[in-house]
Write a structure and sequence with these properties.
Distance between the termini: 53 Å
Strand content: 5-15%
Number of helices: 7
Number of strands: 7
Order of helices and strands: EEHEHHHEEHEHEH
Strand order of the largest sheet: 4-5-7-6
Length: about 240
């Protein structure tokens, strides 16, 4: 059995010493995958694969013909990088990683991650406040958004409150996502949170429709969070019409 950890988004927090207790069990895996373009300030289509057993990976991906046999590779004196990837061309993806490391350095990358984590905490507080304010202005005690997941990284999840939208279905909530994305100012993605097995109270509430805010751009600041909140509630007012 080969255990791979798909840490495409949050695997980069391993760079932060204060976050390593959350990633301590990663050393039990055979490999881990990180997508550099998600939260590492790299351009699209740059990924990192960390693995424990180099020989097993090379045996799986090796595409060596007899004409490429050489004593350096056979003796293990060199690492033949062609044996550690799928040969889909020569796009020189490592250059994207190299330039990012050179531009930011480890302190810059860590600083960006820490700022995004701080911004996520600020964003959820603003969304919570505006949700309360929005419900009061509409004469109801039911807030439009609830927040079932406390942000740990740079990801904020807001769920439509079933008490506020008891008759809305999946397709209805998709219209809100479309409204926000149509502004061309921010882009959000959605998912559905299914109640855990055995949780009677959550089962009675049913599935939650979540919208997700992934903070990943290197220059994001608190003013950007304020703009996100304004756009969300402008489009929520449109959605509620």
């Amino acid at each position: 059995i080969w255990l791979n950890i798909d840490a495409a988004y949050a695997g980069v927090v391993s760079m932060l010493p204060e976050m390593r207790p959350l990633t301590a069990q990663l050393n039990l895996a055979d490999s881990m995958f990180i997508n550099g373009s998600k939260w590492m300030n790299c351009l699209f289509n740059s990924s990192l694969l960390f693995f424990r057993d180099r020989a097993a990976v090379a045996a799986s991906l090796n595409a060596t013909g007899v004409y490429l046999d050489n004593k350096q590779t056979s003796s293990g004196a060199v690492v033949d990088l062609k044996d550690y990837q799928l040969g889909l061309g020569r796009p020189f993806r490592s250059l994207k990683l190299f330039t990012t490391f050179q531009s930011f350095g480890i302190d810059g990358l860590r600083g960006t991650l820490r700022r995004h984590i701080s911004l996520a905490g600020y964003l959820i507080k603003c969304l919570q406040f505006r949700s309360t304010e929005f419900s009061a202005s509409n004469g109801t005690s039911a807030v439009p958004f609830i927040f079932p997941i406390e942000p740990i990284f740079g990801l904020v999840c807001a769920a439509f409150n079933p008490a506020c939208y008891p008759r809305h279905k999946y397709a209805d909530f998709l219209k809100f996502v479309d409204l926000v994305n149509a502004t061309d100012k921010i882009y959000i993605v959605h998912t559905v949170l299914t109640p855990p097995v055995g949780d009677a109270a959550a089962a009675e509430q049913g599935d939650l429709f979540l919208v997700r805010f992934s903070l990943s751009h290197a220059t994001l600041d608190f003013a950007d969070m304020d703009r996100i909140v304004n756009i969300v509630f402008e489009q929520l007012a449109e959605f509620n019409k």
